[in-house]
Design a protein that fits this description.
single chain, alpha/beta, Rossmann fold, 2 domains, globular
Length: 213
């Protein structure tokens, strides 16, 4: 296994690897056989920050490029835990007899836009995307959601799409969005009027199915 260090017919020795059914679903083991130990890819985690002292993440985290838009400084340490959880799924050290197995050997850029309660400003999300794209991120992960369908949400999504027009970055976003028919301010998918689909753009991929109410 190229990423973890085992032979081609072996899997991770991490104790909780057997619970990670998602890795099997995407054929991660087959990819590990051919993936080099350093892909040269920067993954921006736009979330609650990342625990910079986490022993299983330090090898893949670069504090020189992180950013905190909640406190407006360059220390994106996680005071809530969600961003660290997301980062761990992506890049935690694999095959070291600890915890779970990470998916890929990429570098993490932590961007904090959510506070210790898990809430944040739409404007900080857009600014975070802009920062990530300007500072070398190849992929942006946003495991974020909203309980509303307001004009503010509309403006955020439109701003994100505008940013992507001239960038080469790809966004991986949570797609589990449920919208009541008639309770919406805009509809990117002009062919349907019963659901808000903010993720239908060439540079945005969805991590889950869309729920329609």
């Amino acid at each position: 296994m190229g990423f973890g260090g085992n032979g081609p017919d072996e899997v991770s020795n991490d104790p909780r690897y057997g619970n990670q059914w998602g890795l099997e679903c995407i054929d991660a083991e087959e990819a590990w056989d051919v993936v080099p130990d350093n892909l040269g890819i920067i993954l921006a985690i736009i979330d609650t920050g990342v625990d910079v002292s986490h022993a299983n993440l330090m090898a893949h985290y670069d504090t020189a490029i992180d950013r905190d838009f909640v406190s407006n400084d360059y220390d994106a340490d996680d005071d809530m835990g969600h961003g660290t959880h997301v980062a761990g799924i992506a890049v935690v050290v694999t095959d070291n007899n600890e915890g779970i197995a990470g998916l890929a050997p990429v570098k993490i850029m932590g961007i904090k836009v959510m506070n210790w309660l898990g809430f944040g400003l739409e404007s900080d999300i857009v600014t975070g995307i802009d920062y990530a794209a300007d500072n070398g991120a190849h992929v942006i992960n946003m495991s974020l959601g909203s309980t509303s369908c307001s004009q503010a949400d509309s403006s955020v999504i439109e701003a994100i799409l505008d940013l992507l027009k001239y960038r080469t970055v790809t966004i991986d976003a949570l797609a589990g969005i449920s919208v009541l028919s008639g309770d919406r301010d805009f509809d990117i998918d002009q062919g349907r009027d019963d659901v808000l689909i903010p993720l239908q753009a060439d540079q945005i991929s969805c991590s889950s199915s869309l729920a329609v109410s």
